[in-house]
Specification:
The protein is α+β, with helices and mostly antiparallel strands. The chain has 3 helices and 7 strands. It is 26% helix and 28% strand. Strands 1, 2, 3, 4, 5, 6 and 7 form a 7-stranded antiparallel sheet that branches.
């Protein structure tokens, strides 16, 4: 499985990412574990850093902050940090990661956005009122200066 996405619900998405180990490793660092909680009351394993030119960086899908739920089908719940590190080190050449990612909030209605339009308000929505306000301020300043 090279990257199936399943709705995780509650503002999260899950994805399976397959990486091929390079001589330098998988190309990312992890934090977390039962003995080194990255987030209070959460002993999950998280990606803390993607190493430039590493396997994860070159693949492009894994992101800093992703929660790693499983490696090669092995659940990472309730592991000490060093035990999780050992699982990654001994995972083999082809590695499958099941990750969870928090979805980014969207502005406006939720819908299909493959039309090339960016989300949110257009730049003109800020520029036009801003320029009108600046022009009014200059006009008032000039009128006030003439009375002095």
């Amino acid at each position: 499985m090279n990257g199936s996405v399943a709705g995780g619900g509650g503002g999260f998405s899950e994805e399976v990412i397959s990486l091929t180990r390079r001589p330098s490793g998988l190309g990312f660092n992890i934090v977390g574990g039962t003995d080194q909680q990255y987030i209070s009351n959460d002993s999950s394993i998280y990606v803390s850093r993607i190493k430039k030119d590493g396997a994860a960086y070159l693949d492009g899908r894994l992101q800093e902050g992703d929660k790693i739920l499983a490696i090669n089908g092995r659940d990472l719940k309730d592991l000490r940090h060093k035990d999780a590190v050992e699982l990654f080190r001994n995972a083999g050449y082809d590695v499958s990661l099941k990750i969870q990612r928090r979805l980014q909030p969207q502005n406006g209605p939720v819908g299909h956005r493959d039309d090339g339009e960016s989300g949110g308000l257009p730049l003109a929505a800020f520029l036009v009122p801003g320029l009108a306000l600046a022009a009014a301020a200059v006009w008032i300043l000039l009128r006030y200066r003439q009375r002095i």
